[in-house]
């Protein structure tokens, strides 16, 4: 059995809403370190959630083709998550969230310890995790935005985190009307 879950990109798991210019990525489309081992993660079939049972190394990565998005526009990445009542290890261990295009990475921190169990919430909570879609004419249709959630530095066990989805949505106006 493989120890890591490799994301699957299917129309059921990665959905683009053209009207709202929003992309929704379900957990099964994410690369989850230790996600292939049921001692550490429970990954639902289809578009259901992924539940962290326990790990000391939290690493969840995703990517989306930039061709989904409008050139020159800023977008925000947010993870919709929830803590189970029996969650542990989050009190003094923030998670770090990253988005990046063309090697330009932006990081945000989210403290989960004060959140109430069994209520879904979005992270990051305070400042948005944004990226800008490049405008240059040599823009490649295979270019991607990378994003992720991490807690790999403290080496302590944590569990009881549920990932429902990742949402990427526009923020602010389109730059100079570029589409």
From TrEMBL:
Q: Which GO terms describe its molecular function?
A: carbohydrate binding
> What name does this protein carry?
Protein PHLOEM PROTEIN 2-LIKE A9
What species is given as this protein's source? Platanthera zijinensis
């Amino acid at each position: 059995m493989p120890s890591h879950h490799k994301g699957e990109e299917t129309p059921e798991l990665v959905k683009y809403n053209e009207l709202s210019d929003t992309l929704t990525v379900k957990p099964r489309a994410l690369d989850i370190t230790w996600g292939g081992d049921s001692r550490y993660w429970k990954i639902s079939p289809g578009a259901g959630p992924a539940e962290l049972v326990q790990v000391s190394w939290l690493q969840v990565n995703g990517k989306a083709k930039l061709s989904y998005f409008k050139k020159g526009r800023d977008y925000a990445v947010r993870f919709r998550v929830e803590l189970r009542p029996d969650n542990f290890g989050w009190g003094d261990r923030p998670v770090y969230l990253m988005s990046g295009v063309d090697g330009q990475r932006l990081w945000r921190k989210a403290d989960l310890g004060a959140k109430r169990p069994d209520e879904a919430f979005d992270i990051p909570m305070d400042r948005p995790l944004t990226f800008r879609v490049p405008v240059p004419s040599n823009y490649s249709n295979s270019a991607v935005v990378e994003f992720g959630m991490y807690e790999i530095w403290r080496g302590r066990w944590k569990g009881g985190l549920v990932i429902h989805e990742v949402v990427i949505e526009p923020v602010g106006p389109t730059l100079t009307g570029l589409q």
